[in-house]
Amino acid sequence: MKNMMIGVDLAQAVFQVHAALRTGEVQFRKKLTRKQFPAFMAQQEPSMVIFEACGSAHFWAREMEALGHEVKLIAPQYVHPFVKRQKNDAADAEAIVIAARQPEMRFVEPKTVEQQSCAAVFRARERLVHQRTADVNALRALLYEHGHVFPVGMSHLARMTAFVQDETSDLHALIRDPRGDQRSCAQTRDECLRTP
């Protein structure tokens, strides 16, 4: 079992590092830039390195494991109760070590590159589905504003699209082809603004 525990508070530019023995005796406190951090950690004896499970934590976990360190990730809500004084990055780094010493502490498993990539693809797909739903709802609302009611649901998108593209419908040409003459839209807007 590695006796040294190194808590790291990750940030965009400067990392706070707090090292203590498992008994709680502080070994060092450091403030390191992003560039200095990996070089500094490469010089340390294999230790337990603990991060909050936040942005870039899984990347740094893999980097530290490659240097021979054991890595643990803790959910931020489990670290917060151990901040002893005014909240700042140095206090957070110390709290990470104190939290990791708790025998009942639950840790987050560091993700592999493949796991992170799959999660990114899944989140991107969720955003696309959300955007598609918002666009269909906006189209339905636009048609409703012009007196045409369509039921809720993606299954009615084809009917709405066919109606918008139908040149015999009573929709204005700018609605049927919003990529049309943008200048006439701007002129109409300006005329409306000038009307008392």
Tags for this model:
196 residues, alpha/beta, 8 helices, 47% helix, 16% strand
What does this structure look like?
The protein has helices at residues 36-42, 57-66, 76-79, 89-100, 113-145, 157-165, 173-176, 182-194; strands spanning 4-9, 14-21, 26-33, 48-52, 70-74. By secondary structure, the chain is α/β, with parallel strands linked by helices. It has a five-stranded mixed β-sheet. A hairpin with a 4-residue loop joins β1 and β2 (14-21). It starts with a strand and ends with a helix.
Through-space gap between termini: 80 Å
* Shape designation: elongated
Question: Helix/strand-derived class?
Answer: alpha/beta
Mean pLDDT reading: 87
Radius of gyration: 28 Å
Beta-strand segment tally: 5
Low-confidence spans: pLDDT under 50, at least 5 residues? none
Give the percentage of residues in beta strands.
15-25%
Largest β-sheet summary: 5 strands, mixed
Please give the order of strands in the largest beta sheet. Answer: 3-2-1-4-5
Order of helices and strands: EEEHEHEHHHHHH
Instruction: Give the number of helices.
Output: 8
Give helix % range.
40-55%
Short description:
This protein has 8 helices and 5 strands.
